[in-house]
TrEMBL record:
Residues 251-376 form the Alanine racemase C-terminal domain. InterPro entries: Ala_racemase, Ala_racemase/Decarboxylase_C, Ala_racemase_C, Ala_racemase_N, Ala_racemase_pyridoxalP-BS, PLP-binding_barrel. Pathway: Amino-acid biosynthesis; D-alanine biosynthesis; D-alanine from L-alanine: step 1/1. It comes from Paenibacillus nasutitermitis. This is Alanine racemase. The gene is alr.
Length: 378
């Protein structure tokens, strides 16, 4: 699977995306959920860095029912590439962009009566016979976007009742779905239950209620309601306990090769600002990956893998290159692994993210478009 890579990239660094792993993750997640629950595959940020189109295709083949992205731009890209599935845009779009959303058959997130008012002002009275499909976003405690109180909901109702509006869903998003302490999660869930009653006691017919992301869905299947929105878990990201229980596999790896290897004496400098000085005779390898590829300076204290052994990054990371300390001499051209398995060793996005105080997906989404994604299906 790697052999096919090299020549046409014009570069000896590539990210491998194991689509079979994504497919298997989707099937395993589905198996954990009550059977009637629908699965919305979240492919925002170019599929968490794995490729939105490729991820969407495998997710659908493996049982996903719909897709979600963050922005209109991402949804349009998928439609223009021929994706036919329902797509929800998770963040409200501008009212003047609504005709485009209808033309491309996209579902919108709505959070206020003021948005509807402005939308009608710029787009006119009615889209009928076309329908505008919306999901109403509720803020149950994340404090980000959405309706917080009943008054705001009531102000929305007349707009939602219009003949050309279809309320496909009502949803919320959790702040602490992965935390050991589940107190706040349950508070948010109960608040959403109350909000569902607002809808059920109103003239608005909501087709689908949903609240769970990956962690919530896998830890508390009873929170699945009608549908779950799965991002992280589909890519094999999540706390170890969840990953093991659901048999999730990482799908992304990142590889390069040494472009130069040099032997330095004790007391010589390596890299910008003389940030590293050898403290004995050392073999130093240059890896053609830098911060413009997503390997930020904050990953300076991590390790790469060469020949199944960890090799620490030394000195500062440059825009296009970085240096590592090798356990011995290796020829130029030797494979280097930045994410994934190499012999007995492996480095995970999760481990790298710990250096940033972030989540695994912060690493995968940071790998820039300068790094070609190579896909394998088995
Ligand atoms: C990104 C996102 C998700 C997916 O969350 P994961 O934890 O990656 O599964 C779900 N819902 C909303 C609103 C999101 O923004």
């Amino acid at each position: 699977m790697i052999a096919a890579v090299a020549p046409e990239l014009y570069r000896n660094t590539w990210a491998e995306v194991d689509l079979a792993a994504i497919g298997s993750n989707v099937r395993h997640i589905k198996r954990q959920l009550p059977s009637a629950v629908k699965l919305m595959a979240v492919v925002k940020a170019d599929g968490y860095g794995h490729g939105a189109l490729e991820t969407a295709r495998v997710a659908v083949e493996s049982g996903a029912d719909s897709l979600a992205v963050a922005y209109l731009s991402e949804a349009l890209t998928l439609r223009k590439q021929g994706v036919k599935l329902p797509i929800l845009i998770l963040i409200p779009i501008k009212p003047q962009e609504v005709p485009m959303a209808i033309e491309y058959d996209l579902m919108l997130t709505v959070t206020s009566a003021a948005w509807f008012k402005e939308m009608r002002r710029v787009c006119g009275h009615s889209f009928y016979p076309f329908m505008l499909n919306v999901h109403v976003k509720m803020d149950t405690g994340l404090g980000r976007i959405g309706i917080r109180d009943k008054q705001q909901w009531e102000a929305m109702v007349p707009w939602l009742e219009a003949a050309d509006i279809e309320v496909e869903g009502m949803f919320t998003h959790f702040a602490t779905a992965g935390d050991k302490d589940t107190g706040y999660l349950h508070t948010q869930f109960l608040r959403f239950r109350e909000m569902m009653e607002w809808a059920n006691n109103s003239p608005v017919h909501v087709k689908t209620f949903h609240c769970a992301n990956s962690a919530a869905a896998l830890r508390f299947p009873e929170m699945s309601l009608d549908m779950v929105r799965i991002g992280a878990a589909m890519y094999g990201f999540g706390p170890e306990s969840i990953k093991n229980a659901a048999r999730l596999e990482s799908a992304l790896s990142l590889h390069s090769s040494l472009i130069e290897v040099k032997h330095l004496k004790k007391g010589e400098y390596v890299g910008y600002d003389l940030a590293y000085r050898t403290d004995r005779e050392e073999w130093i390898g240059t890896v053609p990956v830098g911060y413009a590829d997503g390997w930020s300076q904050s990953l300076r204290h991590t390790e790469l893998i060469v020949d199944g052994q960890r090799a620490p990054i030394i000195g500062k990371i440059g825009m296009d290159q970085m240096m590592i300390r090798l356990p011995r001499e290796y020829p130029a051209g030797t494979k280097v692994t930045l994410i994934g398995r190499n012999g007995r060793e492996s480095v995970t996005c999760m481990e790298l993210a710990a250096n940033l105080g972030g989540a695994a997906q912060e690493i995968s989404t940071s790998i820039s478009c300068r790094v070609t994604r190579v896909y394998s299906e088995e």
